[in-house]
């Protein structure tokens, strides 16, 4: 019985120590962490950076073999939902030839089971899951990424 009481007392002491230590450790860590917002606290707003213009002069090269192509034009007013996808107006076959736009990949006409379809697969319907507008914005965080082309 005494061993049980001693073990319970030791467990409670450990729990109290953790409860007292964790908030102070988090407070210390919070003062050293910085988000992409900088040092702005969560309850205040900060100024929005200028939106970078799209580089519409030329298409950027792909950085690796299977990289989804970047979007070289503005898409901020494009409607893409369960019923409408305005990207398909120009990029789906046969409209792409009339519009002078690249046709979407044949892989987009195959469902998850590998069955060929006559229309774009539901799993490929939301283009911006993979494709993003290109821009000449500086990197938000430092990185050491090297293009696969440069590694040859």
Describe this structure as you would to a colleague.
- By secondary structure, the chain is mainly alpha-helical.
- Helix content is 26%, strand content 0%.
- It has a domain at 69-135: Flavocytochrome C3, Chain A, domain 2, CATH 1.10.1130.10.
- It has helices at residues 2-32, 88-91, 95-99.
- The longest helix has 31 residues, at 2-32.
In short:
The protein is mostly helical and 152 residues long. The protein is built from three helices and no strands.
CATH top level class name of the domain at 69-135 = Mainly Alpha
| CATH topology-level fold name of the domain at 69-135 | Flavocytochrome C3, Chain A, domain 2
Distance between the termini: 72 Å
Uncertain spans, ≥5 residues at pLDDT below 50? none
Spell out the CATH superfamily of the domain at 69-135. Flavocytochrome C3, Chain A
Q: What portion of residues is helical?
A: 25-40%
| Cα-based radius of gyration, to the nearest Å | 26 Å
Tell me the number of strands.
Answer: 0
Average pLDDT figure: 77
Percent strand equals under 5%
Let me know the largest β-sheet: none
CATH architectural designation of the domain at 69-135: Orthogonal Bundle
Computed structural class: mainly alpha
What is the overall shape? elongated
Question: Helical region count?
Answer: 3
What string gives the helices and strands in order?
HHH
